[in-house]
Design brief:
Radius of gyration: 29 Å
Largest sheet: 6 strands, mixed
Number of domains: 3
CATH topology of the largest domain: Rossmann fold
Strand order of the largest sheet: 3-4-5-2-1-6
Low-confidence stretches: none
CATH architecture of the largest domain: 3-Layer(aba) Sandwich
Mean pLDDT: 92
Structural class: alpha/beta
Bound molecules: guanosine-5'-triphosphate, magnesium ion
CATH class of the largest domain: Alpha Beta
Number of strands: 12
Strand content: 15-25%
């Protein structure tokens, strides 16, 4: 098969592990006839050419042109339809030396293999029916997951939980559609009794599709994470809170105003969500050029944040005009007001603020929860259902939900069934596109070209 970008009949190869020195590296190959073609590059050519599927062979890799040994390797041999791609393939585990890997790839090129394009192995697996499109997308989501939670969600999708959920909706729609079509095929007087098409059932399925589409925001949050910036006046305790999040003394803390002069950042995980946390220079009027530059940078970083944690020194309270200033500065950025130093504060925290002590850790759990709830737009601490992490899937689920709403409306309004039937069929097609039963070459190119090379 040929898509615009990929030709699945050609022999392909790619390094599946990162380019760099390592103990071991894996070089993948795939394509029908690939075992025979690759076998000439090994010292035990005949044994490899005759190897049973699913076996591992020890051999030297040799340049067929000169007979020179290039590396000592093991080769896993798979014969179609076994293995990842469903085609013949040889996976070579070699030493992780860059010159060695380069030689191996050169030898394979000379033996008729070309470099694989991004996602080409998984595309072949999809085309050969080894996985549906939701599982194929989960492969890339799994590889790029930035938190344990995102990883386990992607693993769930790879094992087919999203496919099963979507397929269950689709099967019910196929049954409903066939009931509609039976009635359309016969004139009214020919069928004894008309079967009512339950609008409620359609609405239920519409809700399932819409609910899944809505999980996109949370799914993305777990997968991609968010940028969170600590901001506030000097000495409000930003660096102290930064260190509390990191559980280490990374940022310098002191009672001197203007301690942090340039921003520092670190990846942390808050309740399963990967967060890039920034500590910035505190705001105040600065005559010092370097400090002024630090403050300018703070403003720039806060401007690109998904969430700003604006700290107030609770022992001093809000400075005159501070609330107004911050509302103006962070007009378009979600901001949480953090009332810090509750251990020495005598004032009650302002309404809507979160009271913490960066020194004692009091209020920290509430702060973590507030951050995630604000980023997700809702409380997600109890959510355990499957989630999606693909804009394509989200848009198709929304499309399916729209078709189903229209189908249910048409029944409520007692419209003729030939109005309802295409709406149900539209929803079935949208769901079929998610799982990959209906796809064009263009869509496949678009999905798989976003993958890693070697995947
Ligand atoms: N008692 C108490 N002291 C705190 C708390 N948080 C920070 N401090 C103290 O406040 C002072 C300033 O803390 P920093 O974390 O350096 O403040 P900052 O906002 O990073 O300051 P700049 O870098 O100057 O903008 C230090 O002496 C901290 O020990 C708190 O929750 N309670
Ligand atoms: Mg600081």
């Amino acid at each position: 098969m040929e898509t615009g970008y990929y030709d699945t009949d050609e022999l392909i190869t790619a390094l599946a592990t990162p380019w760099g020195e390592s103990a071991l590296a894996a070089v993948r190959t795939s394509g029908n006839g690939c075992i025979e073609a690759a076998s000439v590059c090994f010292s035990r050519s005949e044994a490899i050419a005759a190897a049973e599927s699913g076996t591992i062979q020890y051999a030297l890799m040799c340049d067929p042109a000169t007979g020179e040994a290039v590396d000592e390797v093991t080769a896993a041999v798979y014969r179609a339809p076994s293995g990842y791609t469903g085609q013949d393939s040889v996976e070579i585990f070699c030493h992780g030396s860059l010159p060695g890997i380069q030689r191996i790839l050169e030898i394979l090129h000379a033996a008729g293999f070309r470099d694989a394009r991004p996602g080409e192995f998984t595309l072949r697996a999809f085309i050969n029916g080894k996985l549906d499109l939701t599982r194929a997308e989960a492969v890339q989501e799994l590889v790029t997951a930035k938190s344990r939670k995102a990883h386990s969600l992607a693993l769930g999708r790879l094992s087919g939980n999203l496919f099963r959920e979507i397929d269950a909706v689709k099967q019910q729609l196929v049954e409903l559609l066939s009931a509609v079509e039976v009635q359309l095929d016969y004139a009214e007087d020919e069928i004894e009794e008309l079967v009512a098409i339950p609008a409620d059932h359609l609405r239920l399925l519409q809700q399932t599709a819409a609910r899944l589409a809505e999980t996109y925001r949370t799914g993305r949050l777990y997968a991609e994470g968010a940028r969170v910036v600590l901001a506030g006046r000097t000495n409000s305790g930003k660096s102290s809170l930064f260190n509390l999040f990191l559980k280490e003394d990374r940022s310098i803390v002191s009672e001197i105003h203007g301690t942090t002069r340039d921003y520092i950042e670190s990846w942390i995980t808050v309740r399963g969500v990967p967060i890039r946390l920034f500590d910035t220079a505190g705001y105040r009027f600065a005559e010092d050029v370097i400090e002024a530059e630090g403050i300018r940078r703070s403003e720039k970083i806060a401007g690109a944040a998904d969430l700003v944690l604006y700290l107030i020194d609770g022992s001093r309270g809000l400075a005159a005009g501070e609330k107004k200033d911050l509302q103006k500065t962070f007009k378009n950025i979600p901001t949480l007001l953090i009332w810090n130093k509750t251990d020495i504060s005598h004032e009650a925290p302002p309404a809507g603020s979160i009271a913490v002590s960066a020194v004692s850790g009091a209020g920290f759990a509430d702060l973590e929860k507030a951050i995630i709830t604000r980023l997700a737009g809702k409380d997600i601490s109890q959510e355990t259902d499957s989630m999606i992490d693909s804009l394509r899937q989200k848009e198709l689920l929304e499309q399916a939900a729209e078709y189903l709403a229209a189908a249910a409306d048409s029944i409520d309004e007692r419209m003729p069934l030939d109005i309802t039937a295409p709406e149900i069929a539209g929803a079935i097609d949208a769901l079929g596109e998610i799982t990959g039963e209906i796809t064009s070459a263009d869509i496949l190119d678009k999905i798989f070209s976003g993958f890693c090379v070697g995947k």
